[in-house]
Amino acid sequence: MIKTVGSVCSGIEAASVAWEPLGLHFEWFSEIAAFPSLILNDKYPDTPNLGDMKDIAPKLFEETIAAPDLICGGTPCQTFSLAGWQNGLNDDRGNLTLKFVDIIEANDSIRAKYDKNPSVVFWENVAGVLSDKTNAFGCLVSSLAGLDEVISMAKWPNAGLVRGPKRNVAWRVLDAKYFSLPQQRKRLYLLAGGKDFDPEKILFEIHTKELPEYPSAPLTFVKDGHKFEVFREYTDCLYSAYGTKWNGNAAATNGSLFVVQDDRIRRLSPLECERLMGFPDHYTDRPKAKKTNRYQAIGNSWAVPVIEWIGTRILEGGDCNLKVDCNNPWINRYVTNLDGNSYFFNFGKDIVTIDGGLQINCTAIPENGQIGTMYDIVSCDATEDIYITPVGCYGIVRRKQERNLPINERLEKVLLAISSEMTPEEIEKRSRVQPRGRFSTQKKEKQVDSIIEVLPTNHALSLKAGSASLNANTAVQVSIFDII
Fold first, then answer.
1. Label partner for 392 (CA 20 to 30 A): which of 118, 289, 311, 314?
2. Cβ atoms of 122 and 189 closer than 8 Å
3. pTM (2 d.p.)
4. Where in 321-401 does DSSP place strands (E)?
5. Quick check: helix, strand or coil at residue 340?
6. Quick check: helix, strand or coil at residue 221?
């Protein structure tokens, strides 16, 4: 029976939001960042925040804190993402992954002292950890399993299982956009436990039906008396720097993290980001909270419905008929014998046949996926400071041209229409306030004719010297860089 939880690298506690309603009790948190710590104190004043995770193992050995039934954590993922330069274990943050193992070992040592089962381990991270060049994931899995040698792979599978001398460890990449959240957020979820624990029953599923294609949905709609437009049925992954680098990410050209409200384009609000992650409305809204802090805390957190799904399956036992047997001839092609008594199962990212006609789902899509819509996400009470000015709209288009990036056609039309609300001279003047970066040294001659668009006819335009004059009622194809 799993009743108690310890949370490492707690953030704003998606685990508590997901699992407390299931009846689990959190013994302690561990978070050092200032703003998430304030949220924890506000929402969970009776749960101690232990601070630095490096202090948890000694406290467990001293028995000054409880040794819970389950420990969950998401050690810093920056070192396993492109944004973090993929330094892996060469970065102190990457080494926290192995400190996480120390916590598990200390916890199980104390539990064994009182004849309790080994703890269940839950770990979440970006899918980039599977291709980390320092093999941090291999170190984590091998350490948890209790192997003498570290398993090394250039690219780990999206789904797999290791049966080791100490623990069984399973993992699977899941996409939040099939868990009622219209956000493409693929994350790696790992479960481990003692030799009597079968994590594959929780993370994998018996495959019984054809997996769905993501459905189409209206991109324009009216809600609460306001007109909305989105550029895709689901967003890109919400990232922690969304509040400060909104126009430097791929979403700036595919438009998936923008909303058009009443013919003006803006970023998602913190409230909308909370909804996009499955948190209750205003969960991070506290007195004098900065939007950048809220964006960062939300973007660094976990997708609540995915965590709830995993927690429910842990408590209910998952698919009881799903058992991966290393002696089953049907799975010989997936299994590697490590040392006679330990096995590694490579299930790739597809549907796998493990026993006659029995198939298991190891894809990023659950058997009974739930689809959410952007209609449910958007809110009409967005504040003025998250709307994008004509200068900002022009900057996105300019960056697209300078870097030869693809762009959503409808997004480009919206950006150009809003850009035309301000004179080119004023745009140029205001855009020079901040450095433009290394791509902006290109000559404008190379940019001319590259952004061809029919601009709105209700805006008076004049062209560069040598071009004909236009009046306010003339529609013509020109480049935005032709306008002076």
1. 289
2. yes
3. 0.86
4. 335-337, 343-346, 351-355, 358-361
5. coil
6. strand
Q: Which two tokens stand for residue 472?
A: 């306010």
Q: Where are the domains of the chain?
A: 4-208+302-361
Contacts of 145 by beta carbon, 8 Å cutoff, 6+ apart: 162, 163, 164, 165, 166, 167, 168, 169, 192, 342
Q: CATH number of 4-208+302-361: 3.40.50.150, 3.40.50.880, 3.90.550.10, 1.10.10.10?
A: 3.40.50.150
Whats the size of the chain, residue-wise?
484
Tokens of 250: 């791929």
Determine how many CB atoms are found less than 10 A away from the CB of residue 158: 21
pLDDT along the chain (484 residues), means of 10: 96 98 98 97 97 94 98 71 43 69 95 97 94 86 91 93 96 98 97 96 95 93 97 94 71 91 96 98 94 95 98 95 84 88 94 87 96 97 93 89 92 95 87 57 40 38 35 38 33
**Residue with structure tokens 């693929």?**
186
CA dihedral 463, 465, 469, 473 (to 10 degrees): 0
The conformational region for residue 255 under phi > 0 = left, psi -120 to 50 = alpha, else beta, is left
For CA atoms 482, 474, 404, 296, give the dihedral sign: positive
